[in-house]
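The instructor's notes for this session suggest beginning with a concrete chain rather than abstract definitions. Hand out the sequence below and ask the class to guess, before any prediction is shown, which regions might be ordered.
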Amino acid sequence: MLSLDRIRAGVVPTFVHPATTRSPAAGIPLGSQTVLTCLQTLPQLRAHAAGALATGVTPVQLREAVYQLAPFIGFPRTLNPVSTINAVFTEHGIALPLPEQGTVDDAARYQRGLALQTPLYGTEIKDDLSDLPEPFNEAIPRFLTEFCFGDFYTRGGLTLAQRELLVLCALAAIGDTAAQLGPHGRACLQTGSSKTVVIAALVQCFPYVGFPRAAAAIRAVRDL
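After discussion, reveal the predicted structure:
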């Protein structure tokens, strides 16, 4: 039974399913860190970051999981979690700065981002914004391609499949994101995750985001 003392201590139940324990490559071990970053619950993030390192997650993987959230929660809410995990790294004797994982420069970020975005999402975002007044009808889709996909999805440290699973967990934590959950759920499948893994990742969000948000996220992807 989950007692009030355990909640105060930051201890939450773990949902055990073969899909969540099969391999760290599934990306799910970083799901709780992703959700806690979105929720800005930094004391719990600190504890879970230490736990992730103890279970074999590398410092680079942990940092990239937090960095990946910047396009979705903004820089201010990303910077504090970065400071939190850096403090954990220091406590564990991990030298900073960590190896750089960026792979693009300003000249290449649009084309590299587009090469990742198009197979997964097509032109749906550009089409959806095509009726905006100029220059926003072209500028906003381009900015999204450069920033979200060019700057972040091209980074090393995590696979594309892992990044998409973590984004899915982030959208569940943010809430009111049904319009984004469907496309990102399909992207999870296209990058190699099974539907079972997708649902299992969202099930792991239950103790952190509560049943309404987690259940809403599962409903958004169940018919993919």
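Then share the key points. The chain has two domains: 14-102+156-221, 104-154. Residues 14-102+156-221 form a domain with the AhpD-like fold (CATH 1.20.1290.10).
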